[in-house]
């Protein structure tokens, strides 16, 4: 039995125009910070660019100072979008987007004097919501979760696979 | 229905069960019993990084060697398996990278479909069952001292096959009213095991003794690298004490093999505290085997001869006791081979 709330949500998204219409703000860049992040980073700053409405590429630098971990990750996202203009307001409204992302993650572990680096791909599912408060200014919330497979040196001439499960909630602005 | 009919029916059912049981049971070749003994020591979740390289410079500000006495006094008397620097490979036998599946892989010959620490008691014949049933070794000659109570699930499907003291008394059971010294303060749950087990070895001279230590894994899960390192240093002293006891035991010591291993590895870097299927690096394990000094007819396989796993520990123990391992599930003498091959 599907709950009425889910049915309502599905109906709302089904009726929401996915194609461009009068309310379809164009964005160029995002600047976002983590409100929450799982290991390996506690804090992250992401800069995103939107070469197309459905595409985003971003670069994130992350840090967990308590563990001496720092990360650098780059992603590409493709998200299907739904538009929710505010009634009677041609410039304000919401966009919600959902889709996959692929990326590359570099991880540096440097708690004391020695350091080690790991590198590998990651796959994410990404959900983004933007409230367009004014023309060219949106407030964003982006939730990503996925799996990263990194190769890390376990000792000289030996590299071991390491799984990471990145989950982060980013909040910021879209311009 | 007459009573005699019921009896006949019951007999037929019993015969069927017996026949099925025999079909399912492992069939082995003839045994050639020896008078060798085995001491098995397991350190729960002890990474190869610490054993072979000492404290991890990525996890310790001031890294120390952790098993100096072992490497100086004991390692030259045996062979080490799973040393990555010599391309030795030894891995767990299941995908679980967890304790109970690891110990069951050592005690059983085949996988037990146990992938977590919440499995029921082992359901197949373990090598301890074979020592009891096929060699007639009594319960007090097959001893397991373990800091983790779940080792009771591993040793045998039956009670009264072996003497099992598992996680009962952190301060020791006072076996046989033996005088017990002050335990090393590095220990926590292992205190009873390290006090009772070595005494049992000296006093009872069992044919098989397993000391299963736990604190390494506990401190690992607590993300307490300092205590983890401290207890590994205590394990180093314990190993020296055990070998000294064997050396002092005369003929018994000359006929006793020492096997040291771990049930699983741990993760890398900040994931060192963790293990399991989500931590692939924790599949790497290691083993050290020291043959009985009197066993001049036996030798050990080269560490780079092939990839080893936990089942090799069982095969090694069976081979040392002269139990045939030529079973329907395969054939291996584990780490042991004949010196005269």
Please explain how this structure is put together:
The complex is a heterodimer of chains A (175) and B (341). Chain A is built from one helix and ten strands, in the order H-E-E-E-E-E-E-E-E-E-E. With 175 residues, chain A is mainly beta. An eight-stranded antiparallel barrel of chain A has the order 1-2-3-4-6-7-8-10. In chain A, strand 3 and strand 4 (69-78) form a beta hairpin. The longest helix of chain A is centred in the first third of the chain and has 12 residues, at 4-15. Chain A is elongated, with a radius of gyration of 19 Å. The relative contact order of chain A is 0.20. The model of chain A has no long low-confidence stretch (mean pLDDT 88). The radius of gyration of chain B is 21 Å and the shape is globular. Mean pLDDT of chain B is 88; it is low at 15-24. In chain B, helix 3 (68-74) runs parallel beside helix 9, helix 7 (191-204) packs parallel to helix 9 (225-248) and helix 8 (215-221) packs antiparallel against helix 9 (225-248). The longest helix of chain B is centred in the last third of the chain and has 24 residues, at 225-248. Chain B is an alpha/beta fold and 341 residues long. Chain B has helices spanning 3-24, 48-53, 68-74, 99-107, 127-134, 152-155, 191-204, 215-221, 225-248, 251-254, 311-321; strands at residues 37-43, 79-81, 89-91, 142-146, 163-166, 208-213, 256-261, 287-290, 298-300, 307-309, 336-338. In chain B, the strands form three sheets. Chain B has a seven-stranded mixed beta sheet, with helices on both faces. In chain B, strands 3-10 form a two-stranded parallel sheet. In chain B, strands 9-11 form a two-stranded antiparallel ribbon. The A-B interface holds A 39-40, 67, 69, 109, 111-116, 118, 152, 154-155, 158, 160-163, 165 and B 49, 53, 57-61, 84-85, 267-271, 278-281, 284.
């Amino acid at each position: 039995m599907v709950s009425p709330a889910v049915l309502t949500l599905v109906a709302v998204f089904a009726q929401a125009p996915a194609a461009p219409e009068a309310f379809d703000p164009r964005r160029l860049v995002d600047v976002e910070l983590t409100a929450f992040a799982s290991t390996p980073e506690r804090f992250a700053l992401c800069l995103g660019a939107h070469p197309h409405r459905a595409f985003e590429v971003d670069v994130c630098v992350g840090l967990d100072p308590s563990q001496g971990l720092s990360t650098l990750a780059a992603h590409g996202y493709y998200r299907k979008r739904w538009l929710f203009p505010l009634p009677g307001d041609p410039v304000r409204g919401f966009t919600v987007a959902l889709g996959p992302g692929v990326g590359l993650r570099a991880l540096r572990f440097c708690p004391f004097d020695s350091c080690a680096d790991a590198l590998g791909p990651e796959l994410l599912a990404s959900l983004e919501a933007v409230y367009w408060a004014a023309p060219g200014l949106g407030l964003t919330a982006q939730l990503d979760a996925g799996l990263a497979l990194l190769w890390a040196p376990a000792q000289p001439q030996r590299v071991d696979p390491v799984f990471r499960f990145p989950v982060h909630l980013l909040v910021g602005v879209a311009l | 229905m007459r009573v005699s009919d019921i009896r006949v029916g019951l007999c037929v059912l019993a015969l069927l069960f017996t026949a099925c049981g025999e079909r399912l049971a492992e069939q082995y070749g003839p045994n050639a019993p020896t008078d060798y003994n085995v001491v098995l020591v397991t350190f729960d979740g002890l990474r190869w990084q610490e054993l072979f390289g000492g404290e991890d410079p990525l996890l310790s500000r001031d890294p120390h060697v952790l098993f100096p006495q072992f490497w100086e006094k004991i390692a030259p008397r045996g062979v080490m398996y799973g040393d990555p620097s010599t391309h030795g490979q030894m891995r767990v036998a299941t995908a679980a990278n967890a304790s109970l599946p690891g110990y069951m892989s050592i005690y059983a010959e085949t996988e037990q479909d146990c992938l977590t620490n919440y499995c029921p008691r082992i359901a197949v014949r373990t090598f301890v069952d074979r020592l009891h049933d096929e060699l007639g070794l009594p319960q007090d000659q097959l001893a397991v001292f373990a800091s983790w109570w779940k080792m009771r699930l591993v040793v045998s499907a039956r009670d009264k096959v072996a003497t099992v003291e598992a996680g009962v008394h952190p301060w020791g059971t006072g076996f046989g009213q033996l005088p017990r010294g002050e335990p090393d303060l590095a220990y926590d749950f292992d205190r009873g095991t390290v006090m009772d087990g070595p005494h049992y070895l000296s006093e009872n001279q069992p044919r098989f003794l397993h000391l299963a230590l736990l604190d390494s894994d506990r401190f690992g899960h607590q993300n307490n690298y300092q205590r983890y390192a401290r207890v590994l240093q205590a394990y180093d002293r314990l190993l020296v004490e055990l070998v000294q006891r064997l050396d002092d035991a005369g003929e018994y010591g000359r006929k006793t093999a020492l096997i040291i291993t771990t049930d699983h590895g741990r993760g890398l870097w900040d994931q060192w505290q963790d293990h399991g299927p989500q931590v692939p690096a924790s599949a790497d394990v290691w083993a050290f085997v020291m043959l009985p000094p009197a066993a001049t007819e036996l030798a050990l396989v080269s560490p780079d001869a092939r990839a080893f796993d936990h089942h090799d520990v069982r095969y090694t123990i069976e081979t040392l006791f002269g139990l045939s391992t030529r079973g329907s599930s395969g054939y291996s003498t584990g780490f042991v081979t004949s010196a005269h091959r």
